[in-house]
Amino acid sequence: MTDTIRRQKARFKLAAIGCSVLLTAAFPFISTSATAQVAESPEPASLSYARMAELASSSPTVARITVRSIVALKRERAPDLPETRSRFYVQAETLGLIRSDGVMSKRISFLVDGSAENARRPNLKNKIFLAFGKVGQQVSEFQLSASTALVPWTPANEALARKVIEDLYAPGAPGPITAITSAFHVPGAIVGEGETQIFLGTADGSPISLSVIRRPQEQPHFSVSLGEVVDDSAKLPERDTLLWYRLACSLPDQLPPLSLTELARNDAEAASRDYSAFRAALGPCDRTQTPVI
């Protein structure tokens, strides 16, 4: 093989690698292809579905990183922090992108706040984390979505992050809930029978309605419909799904008074009772935040 041919092949190989990097960075997130699948782990994820959804939905970029150095900044460089907190300058190496809205450097730096007690020895060096945030004006600059947006990497945590991102960007995925727009109650023909329907506003304008049906000697039937028409076959969403997260983590504890203004007193009381039962059936929204520093 001549030197000219060798040089041409080398150029073609470098060009292909460069195109692959640019194409990957152009998509809003990196799908879980066969080569990117994370093996299932017997250990559960350390984050709840709700907390992971909160982080992923507010973070244009999710990356797997290794911390290479971490230094506590002097107090005068972080005057806005209380005495119990410290700010750290972190340099890290990017190991892979789970989701990205642009190009991200192999070497990045970012700031993270933590406990002042750990200012001298924050034990993060050479540890692997999932970093949730966005790329700055320079591709080597990274901004965490929150001080708790640095999550210890485990196969289970990465698998959960990928699942949540897939749920968030699936066709027809329910958008954020913005308000309870109206509610009404229809009593049944016999005592103990009735139906309450509650209509929600969403960020993307897609309709969501809640339904509570009561019959004598039976447990209430709870359901959620996505669409203009109430689906009689709908059910309560399963826990740790995107629809469950939207409802459990967004709905207020009680029906707002404005949603009941057109109802008679008895119907308003029944609707409020049914709504409280629906919220209880959803279960609590666990968004516990665990800082790494």
Core attributes:
293 residues; 5 helices; 28% strand; elongated; four-stranded antiparallel beta sheet; disordered N terminus; six-stranded antiparallel beta sheet; alpha+beta
What does this structure look like?
It is a single chain. The protein is of the alpha+beta class. It has helices at residues 3-26, 49-57, 155-168, 242-248, 265-282, and strands at residues 61-72, 85-99, 107-115, 128-135, 142-144, 150-152, 177-187, 194-202, 208-214, 221-226. Strands 1, 2, 3, 4, 5 and 6 form a 6-stranded antiparallel sheet that branches. A 4-stranded antiparallel sheet has the order 7-8-9-10, covered by helices on one side. Helix 2 packs across helix 3. The longest helix has 24 residues, at 3-26. It is elongated. The relative contact order is 0.14.
Q: Percent of residues in helical segments? A: 10-25%
User: What is the count of β-strands?
Assistant: 10
Note the main sheet: 6 strands, antiparallel
How would you describe the shape?
elongated
Number of discrete helical segments: 5
> What distance separates the N and C termini?
56 Å
Structural class: alpha+beta
Listing every helix as H and every strand as E from the N terminus to the C terminus, the arrangement reads HHEEEEEEHEEEEHH
Specify Rg, calculated over alpha carbons: 25 Å
Q: Unreliable segments (pLDDT under 50, ≥5 consecutive)?
A: 1-39
Oligomer: single chain
Mean pLDDT: 87
How much of the sequence is in beta strands? 25-35%
